[in-house]
Design a protein that fits this description.
Gyrase A, domain 2; 3 domains; 15 helices; 45% helix; 17% strand; flat; binds the ligand Nc1nc2c(c(=O)[nH]1)N(C=O)[C@@H](CNc1ccc(C(=O)N[C@@H](CCC(=O)O)C(=O)O)cc1)CN2; binds guanosine-5'-triphosphate; GTPase activity; hydrolase; GTP-binding
């Protein structure tokens, strides 16, 4: 294990705003490192005690008054990072936190890089890499299901599972080593079948965990529900009504700009990701055509499609138009039901965005379709892999196990050569957990963190 000290800048005392920037009641500025206490002292904190909140008249090292603040000191190693940590709670807003940050730098601290506090926690052995990612997942969670999963990972749920799998690899390596040492003992204590069985069940366990990735994606992003139909069918109104109907948390997806409007409804048993698409029809208009191409792409991925139309004819036309473009469950929806009572006997759920009629029934129908389409029903309490890094690491270990089994069963390779695959599998799992700390793995993980975390 490398320690923070062996890294460039690892001895520095780092500082960052730990709370979101902008107007707020309180802001927290966090210092971590050997000089944290000295720096706090330079800002006017004279009598700090570990794990006590102390009120301090903060001032710049040059004597300028800064704020009436509260300071907490977490003495190393009993802190988030494992270093001495000092937290300065100031009044929030735009000016005070910036001035206090600048004063910390003037007193000798260095502004932290993204994720550097958590990186130190990993380097100081306070948490492993998977737990560090869980910290980021917890902050980024947009659904309560993802929140539960991140919390369980932070508590070491996934790490323990990965460590157990790695132990199984080591166990298998030991069996092989025994076999290599005593090859002539034909009916020695280790039958070749025992090695084969152990390798197969390990391969299966790796594959099972790897295959939880799509389930976790559903918990993270929601089940994709596409609203399709001809122009003016009332799709956007339905989208808004569905999202407004439930009082659950609604969060627009930030980040990548998409050519369709989407929002996640945080709903049990599964979060739903609604997409409002451009109307489906053949068109010469270039811009509209592009929009329709986007709809087609979403349709191809959709788990549930609401086939909308304000008349029986429109519903039928929509169903026909999407039939070859989606493999999701299609729910016919008769929109604007308040305008046309004659639809009651026709196809589709009667729904009105205007009056709210049928919305609840539609949501339940979507829930049922979502559950039916989910890749096994994930529950947020299962151990799952939530990141591509996890999936790729498990896939690499899994493939090595397959290679090992091939070599072992064919008997073509000598055992020591076959064992190389087990070594590679173990390395993949070690990388995943962060047992061997390769700098580039750390760089990749922490690049995505926000500053102050
Ligand atoms: N004020 C504050 N709140 C926070 C954090 C923080 O750093 N500061 N956290 C961070 O982002 C999270 C909590 N995580 C933490 C993890 C470990 C320790 C800590 O001091 N651990 C010591 C002592 C354990 C104990 O006495 O229970 C240790 O593990 O030895 C503190 C916070 C969320 N809330
Ligand atoms: N009476 C009534 N009018 C509705 C209802 N839903 C939508 N409308 C009206 O129908 C018109 C079209 O609604 P939109 O929601 O914009 O339809 P759209 O399918 O998204 O249209 P495009 O974006 O062109 O594809 C608007 O004037 C809405 O006010 C409804 O449930 N009842």
């Amino acid at each position: 294990m490398v320690t923070a000290r062996q890294l460039p800048g690892g001895d520095d005392t780092i500082v960052a705003l730990a709370t979101a920037a902008g107007r707020g009641a309180i802001a927290v500025i966090r210092l971590s490192g050997a000089r944290a206490i000295d720096i706090a002292r330079a800002l006017g904190a004279s009598a700090l005690q570990p794990r006590h909140a102390t009120r301090v008249a903060l001032q710049h090292p040059n004597g300028d008054p800064l704020d009436d603040a509260v300071i907490t000191w977490y003495a190393a190693p009993r802190s988030y990072t494992g270093d001495d940590v000092v937290e300065i709670s100031t009044h929030g807003g735009h000016v005070v936190p910036a001035l206090v940050l600048a004063a910390c730098v003037a007193a000798g601290a260095r502004p932290a890089t993204p994720g550097e506090f958590t990186r130190r926690a990993v380097l100081n052995g306070r948490m492993d890499l998977v737990q560090a990612e869980a910290v980021a997942d917890l902050i980024d969670a947009r659904t309560t299901a993802m929140h539960r999963q991140a919390l369980s990972q932070l508590d070491g749920g996934l790490s323990r599972r990965l460590l157990a799998l790695r132990d199984d690899v080591i166990h298998l390596e030991a069996l092989i080593a025994y076999d290599i040492d005593f090859p002539e003992e034909d009916d020695g204590p280790i039958a070749p079948a025992r090695i084969k069985n152990a390798a197969e069940s390990l391969r299966d366990a790796l594959r099972a965990l790897m295959h939880t990735a799509p389930q976790a994606a559903v918990l993270r992003d929601g089940v994709l529900v596409v609203i399709a139909g001809p122009p003016n069918a009332g799709k956007s109104s339905l989208f808004n009504a569905l999202l407004g109907e439930s009082r659950a948390l609604v969060t627009p997806i930030a980040g990548t700009t998409r050519d369709a409007i989407e929002a996640v409804l945080d709903r049990a048993p599964l979060p739903l990701r609604f997409v409002d698409t451009a109307g489906l029809r053949d068109t010469a208009d270039e811009i509209e055509r592009l929009g329709i191409e986007v709809s087609t792409r979403y349709l191809a991925q959709a788990q549930v499609v609401l086939a909308c139309g304000a008349s029986a004819g429109d519903i039928a036309a929509t169903c026909e138009a999407i039939a070859t473009r989606t493999s999701g469950t299609v729910i016919p929806v008769h929109t604007k039901a308040d305008l046309d009572a004659s639809g009651a006997d026709g196809p589709g759920l009667q729904v009105s965005a205007e009056t709210g009629q049928g919305l609840r029934a539609l949501l339940y129908a979507i829930d049922r379709a979502a559950v039916a389409n989910a890749v096994g029903l994930p529950t947020s309490d299962d151990v799952m892999v939530t990141r591509e890094r996890h999936r790729a690491g498990l896939a690499a270990a899994h493939d090595e196990l397959c290679e090992f089994l091939l070599a072992w069963e064919s008997g073509a390779l000598p055992a020591p050569v076959a064992a190389v695959h087990l070594y590679a599998a173990r390395e993949s799992l070690s990388d995943l957990i962060g047992i061997v700390d390769t700098e580039d793995v750390l760089d990749r993980v922490f690049r995505e963190f926000c500053i102050g975390k």
